[in-house]
Amino acid sequence: MTKRTLVPGAAGKLEKFKMEVAEDMGLGNIESKNEYMGDVPSGVVNKIKNSGNVGGEMVRRMVEAAEKNMADNNK
Q1: What pLDDT does 4 receive?
Q2: Distance CA 24, CA 37 (A)
Q3: What is the pLDDT of residues 12-30, one digit of tens each?
Q4: End-to-end Cα separation, the chain, in angstroms
Q5: Is 30 left (phi over 0), alpha (psi -120 to 50) or beta?
């Protein structure tokens, strides 16, 4: 599977959206998964392990926005 942006110019906005969703999920202050984590509380480490959920949350929000847009256009 290749990760590519289908709409030219959207890559930056998608990255910004990803960071916003991660922040909402309490994952925004994590810079790198490869840094030393010995002094990080286990609750934070568990959030990092679950950070794959960010993509799922992004999709949920995009679908919700599209459904709302369709409903608003049908009024």
Answers
A1: 75
A2: 22
A3: 888 888 888 878 877 766 5
A4: 39
A5: beta
